[in-house]
Protein backbone atom coordinates (compact mmCIF):
# COMPACT_ATOMS: atom_id res chain seq x y z
CA UNK A 1 0.00 0.00 0.00
CA UNK A 2 1.36 3.40 -1.00
CA UNK A 3 2.23 6.07 1.51
CA UNK A 4 -0.55 8.44 0.45
CA UNK A 5 -3.18 5.71 0.80
CA UNK A 6 -2.09 5.18 4.40
CA UNK A 7 -2.24 8.91 5.12
CA UNK A 8 -5.63 9.19 3.42
CA UNK A 9 -6.99 6.44 5.67
CA UNK A 10 -6.71 8.97 8.55
CA UNK A 11 -5.88 6.43 11.22
CA UNK A 12 -5.43 8.88 14.08
CA UNK A 13 -4.21 6.22 16.53
CA UNK A 14 -1.80 4.50 14.14
CA UNK A 15 1.55 5.40 12.57
CA UNK A 16 3.56 3.62 9.87
CA UNK A 17 7.16 3.03 10.93
CA UNK A 18 9.61 0.73 9.10
CA UNK A 19 7.20 -1.77 7.54
CA UNK A 20 4.10 -1.95 9.68
CA UNK A 21 1.38 0.10 11.33
CA UNK A 22 1.93 0.68 15.05
CA UNK A 23 -0.28 1.97 17.86
CA UNK A 24 0.07 2.41 21.61
CA UNK A 25 -3.06 2.40 23.76
CA UNK A 26 -2.86 3.72 27.33
CA UNK A 27 -4.82 1.18 29.34
CA UNK A 28 -3.53 2.31 32.74
CA UNK A 29 -3.48 -1.07 34.46
CA UNK A 30 -2.99 -4.72 33.61
CA UNK A 31 -6.61 -5.85 34.02
CA UNK A 32 -7.91 -3.15 31.68
CA UNK A 33 -5.15 -3.96 29.20
CA UNK A 34 -6.04 -7.64 29.28
CA UNK A 35 -9.71 -6.88 28.66
CA UNK A 36 -8.74 -4.67 25.73
CA UNK A 37 -6.47 -7.34 24.25
CA UNK A 38 -9.22 -9.94 24.65
CA UNK A 39 -11.64 -7.77 22.69
CA UNK A 40 -9.00 -7.11 20.05
CA UNK A 41 -8.37 -10.86 19.81
CA UNK A 42 -12.03 -11.57 19.13
CA UNK A 43 -12.10 -8.92 16.38
CA UNK A 44 -8.93 -10.37 14.89
CA UNK A 45 -10.39 -13.87 14.85
CA UNK A 46 -13.50 -12.61 13.06
CA UNK A 47 -11.32 -10.82 10.51
CA UNK A 48 -8.95 -13.75 10.06
CA UNK A 49 -6.07 -11.29 10.47
CA UNK A 50 -4.01 -10.85 13.62
CA UNK A 51 -1.85 -8.09 15.13
CA UNK A 52 1.34 -8.55 17.10
CA UNK A 53 0.56 -7.58 20.70
CA UNK A 54 2.75 -6.39 23.59
CA UNK A 55 0.76 -6.19 26.83
CA UNK A 56 2.39 -4.22 29.66
CA UNK A 57 1.08 -2.91 32.96
CA UNK A 58 0.14 0.55 31.69
CA UNK A 59 -0.16 0.27 27.92
CA UNK A 60 -0.70 -2.09 25.00
CA UNK A 61 1.43 -1.86 21.85
CA UNK A 62 -0.02 -3.27 18.63
CA UNK A 63 1.60 -3.89 15.26
CA UNK A 64 -0.22 -4.65 12.01
CA UNK A 65 1.34 -5.98 8.81
CA UNK A 66 0.22 -8.52 6.22
CA UNK A 67 2.96 -11.11 6.63
CA UNK A 68 2.14 -12.92 3.40
CA UNK A 69 3.28 -9.87 1.40
CA UNK A 70 5.48 -8.22 4.07
CA UNK A 71 3.72 -4.87 3.82
CA UNK A 72 0.67 -2.93 4.92
CA UNK A 73 -2.51 -3.83 3.03
CA UNK A 74 -6.18 -2.96 3.24
CA UNK A 75 -6.61 -5.80 5.74
CA UNK A 76 -4.39 -3.90 8.16
CA UNK A 77 -6.23 -0.63 7.60
CA UNK A 78 -9.58 -2.29 8.24
CA UNK A 79 -8.45 -4.05 11.42
CA UNK A 80 -6.73 -0.90 12.68
CA UNK A 81 -10.05 0.94 12.43
CA UNK A 82 -11.84 -1.83 14.32
CA UNK A 83 -9.21 -1.80 17.09
CA UNK A 84 -9.53 1.98 17.44
CA UNK A 85 -13.29 1.59 17.75
CA UNK A 86 -12.79 -0.98 20.53
CA UNK A 87 -10.44 1.42 22.33
CA UNK A 88 -12.95 4.25 22.11
CA UNK A 89 -15.76 2.03 23.38
CA UNK A 90 -13.61 1.09 26.39
CA UNK A 91 -12.53 4.69 27.06
CA UNK A 92 -8.90 4.02 26.15
CA UNK A 93 -6.74 6.74 24.58
CA UNK A 94 -3.83 6.24 22.22
CA UNK A 95 -0.36 7.76 22.47
CA UNK A 96 1.32 7.97 19.04
CA UNK A 97 4.18 10.03 20.50
CA UNK A 98 5.28 6.96 22.44
CA UNK A 99 5.96 4.96 19.28
CA UNK A 100 9.45 4.28 17.94
CA UNK A 101 11.32 1.49 16.20
CA UNK A 102 15.07 0.90 16.02
CA UNK A 103 16.80 -0.44 12.93
CA UNK A 104 20.52 -1.16 12.75
CA UNK A 105 22.28 0.09 9.62
CA UNK A 106 25.62 -1.21 8.36
CA UNK A 107 27.68 0.32 5.56
CA UNK A 108 28.62 -2.50 3.19
CA UNK A 109 30.60 -2.54 -0.05
CA UNK A 110 29.99 -6.28 -0.54
CA UNK A 111 26.44 -7.12 0.47
CA UNK A 112 26.59 -10.58 -1.13
CA UNK A 113 29.47 -11.49 1.19
CA UNK A 114 28.33 -9.78 4.39
CA UNK A 115 24.59 -10.47 4.21
CA UNK A 116 24.58 -14.25 4.73
CA UNK A 117 26.88 -13.92 7.76
CA UNK A 118 24.57 -11.48 9.52
CA UNK A 119 21.48 -13.48 8.56
CA UNK A 120 23.00 -16.59 10.14
CA UNK A 121 24.20 -14.74 13.24
CA UNK A 122 20.84 -13.05 13.84
CA UNK A 123 18.81 -16.10 12.76
CA UNK A 124 16.87 -13.95 10.31
CA UNK A 125 15.73 -13.92 6.72
CA UNK A 126 18.01 -12.14 4.25
CA UNK A 127 15.98 -10.42 1.53
CA UNK A 128 16.96 -7.45 -0.56
CA UNK A 129 18.98 -5.12 1.65
CA UNK A 130 17.62 -6.38 4.98
CA UNK A 131 18.00 -9.08 7.57
CA UNK A 132 14.73 -9.40 9.50
CA UNK A 133 14.20 -11.64 12.53
CA UNK A 134 11.09 -13.73 11.82
CA UNK A 135 9.67 -13.33 15.33
CA UNK A 136 10.55 -9.67 15.79
CA UNK A 137 12.79 -10.30 18.82
CA UNK A 138 15.67 -8.28 17.41
CA UNK A 139 15.92 -5.02 15.47
CA UNK A 140 16.12 -5.48 11.73
CA UNK A 141 19.49 -4.92 10.04
CA UNK A 142 19.63 -2.76 6.91
CA UNK A 143 22.68 -2.67 4.64
CA UNK A 144 23.58 0.76 3.28
CA UNK A 145 25.42 0.42 0.01
CA UNK A 146 28.80 2.14 0.06
CA UNK A 147 32.10 2.17 -1.78
CA UNK A 148 34.97 0.07 -0.46
CA UNK A 149 37.15 2.01 1.96
CA UNK A 150 40.21 1.39 4.08
CA UNK A 151 40.26 4.39 6.39
CA UNK A 152 38.54 3.91 9.77
CA UNK A 153 34.99 5.22 9.84
CA UNK A 154 31.70 4.57 11.54
CA UNK A 155 30.26 1.48 9.89
CA UNK A 156 27.24 0.84 12.13
CA UNK A 157 24.64 3.47 12.96
CA UNK A 158 21.12 3.50 14.37
CA UNK A 159 18.07 4.32 12.29
CA UNK A 160 15.41 5.60 14.67
CA UNK A 161 12.01 5.32 13.00
CA UNK A 162 9.47 7.73 14.45
CA UNK A 163 5.92 8.81 13.63
CA UNK A 164 6.14 11.42 10.88
CA UNK A 165 4.46 14.01 13.08
CA UNK A 166 6.88 13.43 15.98
CA UNK A 167 10.25 13.35 14.19
CA UNK A 168 10.87 17.09 13.96
CA UNK A 169 10.32 17.55 17.70
CA UNK A 170 12.73 14.71 18.52
CA UNK A 171 15.39 16.10 16.18
CA UNK A 172 15.12 19.49 17.88
CA UNK A 173 15.51 17.84 21.29
CA UNK A 174 18.64 15.99 20.15
CA UNK A 175 20.15 19.20 18.78
CA UNK A 176 19.32 21.03 22.03
CA UNK A 177 21.11 18.23 23.89
CA UNK A 178 24.37 18.92 22.06
CA UNK A 179 23.88 17.22 18.70
CA UNK A 180 23.94 18.71 15.22
CA UNK A 181 22.21 18.09 11.92
CA UNK A 182 24.67 16.65 9.42
CA UNK A 183 22.34 16.10 6.46
CA UNK A 184 18.70 16.95 5.91
CA UNK A 185 18.38 17.30 2.13
CA UNK A 186 16.01 14.31 2.02
CA UNK A 187 13.88 15.17 5.05
CA UNK A 188 11.35 14.05 6.15
CA UNK A 189 12.41 10.62 4.82
CA UNK A 190 15.54 10.82 6.95
CA UNK A 191 17.73 13.32 8.76
CA UNK A 192 21.31 12.48 9.78
CA UNK A 193 22.37 13.70 13.22
CA UNK A 194 25.74 13.57 14.97
CA UNK A 195 26.54 13.59 18.66
CA UNK A 196 29.29 15.86 20.07
CA UNK A 197 31.90 13.19 19.25
CA UNK A 198 30.73 12.80 15.66
CA UNK A 199 28.86 9.49 15.99
CA UNK A 200 25.92 9.52 13.58
CA UNK A 201 22.33 8.34 13.71
CA UNK A 202 19.36 8.80 11.37
CA UNK A 203 15.86 9.86 12.29
CA UNK A 204 13.58 8.22 9.73
CA UNK A 205 9.91 8.45 8.75
CA UNK A 206 7.92 6.68 6.06
CA UNK A 207 7.25 9.92 4.16
CA UNK A 208 8.83 10.78 0.79
CA UNK A 209 10.12 7.26 0.15
UniProtKB/TrEMBL annotation:
Which Gene3D superfamilies does this UniProt record tie to the protein? Answer: 2,3-Dihydroxybiphenyl 1,2-Dioxygenase, domain 1, Transcriptional coactivator/pterin dehydratase
GO molecular function terms listed in the Swiss-Prot or TrEMBL record: 4-alpha-hydroxytetrahydrobiopterin dehydratase activity
According to its UniProt record, which reaction does this protein catalyse? (4aS,6R)-4a-hydroxy-L-erythro-5,6,7,8-tetrahydrobiopterin = (6R)-L-erythro-6,7-dihydrobiopterin + H2O
Q: Does the keyword Lyase apply?
A: yes
Against InterPro entries, the record matches this protein to: Glyas_Bleomycin-R_OHBP_Dase, Glyoxalase_6, PCD_sf, Pterin_deHydtase
According to its UniProt record, which protein family does this protein belong to? Belongs to the pterin-4-alpha-carbinolamine dehydratase family.
Q: Which PANTHER family match?
A: PTERIN-4-ALPHA-CARBINOLAMINE DEHYDRATASE (PTHR12599:SF0)
Report what the protein is called.
Putative pterin-4-alpha-carbinolamine dehydratase
Amino acid sequence: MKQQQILDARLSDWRKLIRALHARFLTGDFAKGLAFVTAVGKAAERAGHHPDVNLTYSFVDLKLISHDVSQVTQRDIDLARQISEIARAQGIESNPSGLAEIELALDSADLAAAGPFWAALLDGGFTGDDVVAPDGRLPSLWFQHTDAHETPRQRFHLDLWLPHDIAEERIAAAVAAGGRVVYDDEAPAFVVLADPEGNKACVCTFLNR
